[in-house]
From TrEMBL:
It is a multi-pass membrane protein. Gene3D superfamilies: CorA soluble domain-like (3.30.460.20), Magnesium transport protein CorA, transmembrane region (1.20.58.340). This is Magnesium transporter. It comes from Actinomadura harenae. Pfam families: CorA. It comes from the Bacteria.
Length: 341
């Protein structure tokens, strides 16, 4: 029997373990001690769910003995930041998933690992935050298609709810980013054109979108593997449900791909608009420089140390002043008509 590597750390839980048991698709027990899991696993057509939040390696040792888990899978379950994946072992499946939660402009990823056998589902979470209560509510609202059926169908329904929850949150995050892209578009075409805010929000949006794409893209491969007819991992009555989750995963991929192109176009548009605004500023500065050059040229001419028309006469001063005013006003009107000012 495979054993996980020894570890001297004590069992520590960020949240109390949660347990449930179903018999013939009907919930028969909840909240029983972890030590009683083995007793329920001995009963025919009984499915057990165990949820561990923040367990250390010694906490996983008991479960790995009961379910004959491979130490490699146990190591992945207790390690942080494993990639999204589905690994098939002889007697069970191991999944590592990420559920995004968007709060304003910030997004957090909550990691969850799951061991799925013919009669048990064990979820392992490194930290609180994963919506376990929502998962339980989905199980309670599940269609009554497992009553009197095999334990594998009950397990398949539990796994379906978990995958559906993760993909729904990924889709919700993609839709939130789509709304953020619309808000960013309005900022770009706003007359105020807040450059710093646009840069900060576009950088944060691209970063969040990259994180979402990295964890959501493998979901299609996971669901595609589960739905393959030759491996027969999903019971026949649940295939339409898994197919629905697969369709949602495809939508997440379409969302992220479309948003990537949209954000790239928005950034190109921002650069183009910023260049146009810079040209407008340069045009105005140049126009004002031309207006200022007129009095400078005239006063410079009359400042020569040689006689000039009107030298030593009052009318010469008035003539130069009138020329400065007339030419400056004329240039101002000309530039204004051409929208250079």
């Amino acid at each position: 029997m495979a054993q996980p590597p020894e570890d001297d750390e004590d069992d520590e839980y960020a949240e109390p373990p949660r347990t449930r048991a179903w018999h013939d698709g009907v919930l028969v027990a909840e909240g029983f001690p972890v030590d009683d899991v083995s007793e329920y696993l001995k009963q025919d057509e009984t499915v057990v769910w165990l949820d561990l939040c923040g367990p250390q390696r010694t906490a996983m040792r008991v479960i790995s003995r009961e379910l004959n888990l491979d130490p490699v899978a146990v190591e992945d379950a207790v390690s942080r930041h494993e990639r999204t994946k589905l690994d098939r072992y002889t007697d069970y499946l191991f999944l590592n998933l990420y559920l995004p939660v968007v709060d304003g402009a910030d997004m957090r990823m909550f990691e969850v690992s799951a061991f799925v056998t013919d009669s048990a589902v064990v979820t392992v979470r490194p930290e609180p935050g994963f919506p376990v209560e929502e998962l339980v509510r989905r199980w309670d609202r599940s269609p009554d298609i497992t009553r009197g059926d095999s334990a594998s169908t009950t397990v398949g329904l539990l796994l379906y709810a978990l995958l559906d929850l993760v993909v729904d949150h990924q889709l919700g995050a993609a839709q939130a980013f789509d709304d953020e892209a619309d808000a960013l578009e309005e900022l770009i075409f706003d007359d105020a054109f807040p450059v710093r805010e646009i840069q900060e929000r576009s950088f944060r949006l691209r970063k969040n979108l990259f994180m979402l794409r990295r964890v959501s893209l493998p979901m299609r491969e996971i669901l595609n593997t589960l739905l393959r007819r030759d491996v027969r991992l999903v019971p026949q009555p649940l295939i339409p449900y898994y197919q629905d989750v697969y369709d949602h995963a495809l939508r997440v991929g379409e969302f992220t791909d479309g948003l990537r192109d949209l954000i790239a176009n928005l950034l190109d548009t921002r650069i183009a608009l910023q260049g146009n605004r810079l040209n407008e500023v340069m045009k105005k500065v140049t126009s004002w420089a031309a207006i200022i050059a007129v009095p400078t040229a005239i006063t410079g001419f009359y400042g020569q140390n040689v006689p000039y028309p009107g030298f030593g006469h009052a009318w010469g001063f008035w003539f130069s002043s009138l020329a400065i005013a007339a030419l400056s006003v004329g240039l101002y009107v000309l530039f204004k008509r051409r929208d250079w000012l």
